[in-house]
Amino acid sequence: MNAALRSFIVILLSGIAGALAENPSPVPSPESPDDSISPELLEALDNAPSVCLDPGRIAPSESPTANERRKFEGNPIKFRRMIDGPANFRYRPDGKILGQFGDQLVVLLEAQRGDWYFVRGYWEKTCDAGWTKRNNFRPMTDFRMLSEAESENVFASNAYGVAFRAYFNDPKGPGIAEGLAESTLKRLGPCKYRGSRGSCATAAHLMNSLLARIAYDRGDKKSAESLLLRSATFPEDSSIATIGPCMGLARYLFDKGEKSMVTQFIERLKKSWVHSAEEVSANSWKELPAPSPFPDLWLSEIRAGKNPTFERAKHLEWVWRKESWKPVP
């Protein structure tokens, strides 16, 4: 190969490489407005309830510049995509992971930095925002609205974490968490959808427990007792009625000398904890035919003057550990 031809090939390849670096081209093209769903479905999407109980409490991320936002100005609702996931969202492009968007979650694109896009949850998790790569998107062609039962399940699965995170991390923690917990319980209501009762009953149980702890810590023992007893009531066909409740608050109160309050709580559990189960592996349970034997065991330990161990009911105690809710640096 002569020198002139070799030089031509080098220049040609350099030009191609430069063009590819300047114009990354995975599909779909997020910077193109998406008109692939009907106006009727878009209206339903706009009016769907949100998991976000407090829009001001968004995970901190590096904000896009005005220039990075420019091409998405005008009619931002046009720039919707579904997540092809699950997909991480980050503090900055290639930065620390802040969280994860679920598969088929609808997001709004707000800015672009190379192959990275700043997105905000548009519907089910509108508190979440951060940077994610463009190959994590899919078009809206296959989008469908969740049923009311599915929507309740999504809400319940995420909502209690917002309140616990506020309780442990917000400067006004108890006050903020109390409002969030009350909002959660108001929206959940009686956990009426059979398919979502597992998540709904767990969220209601934990929110009432959190409210009881807040009331107790401010000296309102009467309200704390009422809320604690309310947390001990859950539907028979919920998962918590099989694998059992969170005993973290009961342990805390017993250590504070609240023997009577904890005894009443356990007595109430005997009516709700109607099944029994044993853990056969991590997060895998085998249901047994009889009601849980543990409330009677704990009551007998208390009557004998012992400290109840609350063993076999630790699967939810992580919610009461502050490190579980540590914010991302």
Q: How would you describe what is shown here?
A:
- The chain has 11 helices and 9 strands.
- It has helices at 3-22, 39-46, 66-69, 148-169, 173-188, 197-217, 221-231, 240-243, 248-255, 259-272, 294-303, and strands spanning 80-83, 87-90, 97-101, 106-113, 116-121, 129-133, 137-138, 276-281, 284-288.
- The strands form 3 sheets. It has a 5-stranded antiparallel beta sheet with strand order 6-5-4-1-7. Strands 2-3 form a two-stranded antiparallel sheet. It has a two-stranded antiparallel ribbon with strand order 8-9.
- The chain is elongated and about 70 Å long.
- It starts with a helix and ends in a 26-residue tail after the last helix.
- Mean pLDDT is 76; it is low at 1-28.
User: In percent, how helical is the residue content?
Assistant: 40-55%
Estimate the global geometry from the Cα principal axes.
elongated
Biggest β-sheet strands, sense, barrel: 5 strands, antiparallel
- How many domains, as an integer? 2
As laid out across the biggest beta sheet, the strand order is 6-5-4-1-7
Tally of separate helices:
11
| Mean pLDDT reading | 76
Q: Report Rg.
A: 25 Å
Write the layout of secondary structure elements.
Elements (H helix, E strand, L loop, with lengths): L2 H20 L16 H8 L19 H4 L10 E4 L3 E4 L6 E5 L4 E8 L2 E6 L7 E5 L3 E2 L9 H22 L3 H16 L8 H21 L3 H11 L8 H4 L4 H8 L3 H14 L3 E6 L2 E5 L5 H10 L26
Antiparallel strand pairs: 1-4, 1-7, 2-3, 4-5, 5-6, 8-9
